[in-house]
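User
New here, explain this?
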Amino acid sequence: MNSLSYSASGKLLLFGEYLVLKGSLSFSIPLSVGQNLHILPYSGKGILWQCFEFEKCWLEIYFSEKLEIIYTTDIKKALPVQKLLLFIRERKHNPGSSGLCFKFDLNFNRYYGFGTSATLISLLSQWSGLDPYLLLAQSFDGSGYDIATATAKQPILYSIAQKVTGSCSLPESVTQHLLFVYRGKKQISASEVASFKNKQIRSGQIEQMNAIIASASRCTHISAWEKLMQESEQLIAPILGVPAVKEQQFADYPYAIKSLGAWGGDFIMVAFRDLSEAKNYFMQKHTQSLYTYRELIKQR
């Protein structure tokens, strides 16, 4: 067989974290980084599964023809992969997956929370032809916004009920004043999802988030965008019972700061007016990585 190749983009969830699990809209953006899948002929009778991050292998699995795990470097990570492959084989009535090497190449730090699992699901969907949301339900759970973003070309609005409800393009009057800062505290998405699903959410809170996102999709000025960042933080903080990140760690910063994705880790979105001043401020706070919108976001 000839080799096959597929690609999927990483993501950042700008608005709608947590509440998307209860039916609200979400606002996410595809990144310039992501994950690629190359499927190659393999001399063995089973499947060789290899995952690389910047060319360093972080997971290897060897499956028998019956998809039994013969060898792996991490059994905890191998079991969900086995479950997915068994499900795909059952649904596709044996898609001829024996004698293949699945080589995944990740070109971002997998601790960043950019969607290692979501891009994997998207890639397997592209290969197998199965609905990615069906594969998600069999594996990592979640709202699916990250699955939708993996193949998006520009920022999208997404809800569980309707999937992608629209797309938008943010103007430079907003994006040239945004910085994304990694806090160095990776959160486990599955744990956050499971914990939040038990919370009671009022319809008014969903409506408020939907209104914030509708305004964000039409926003044309950074000061208005900052107001929406603040409104979102004020909405989510009491629901989680956790102080907003600016109040907790960056109270002396002069502009708006918003948590992205699971609170307490991963990235924050920061507004600024002078880039060098903003970078100096966060470097003094010992943050590990900083990216402008243009450096990180997928360009059309």
Q: What stands out?
A: DSSP finds eleven helices and twelve strands in the chain. The chain has a mean pLDDT of 92. Residues 222-240 form the longest helix (19 residues). The radius of gyration is 20 Å.
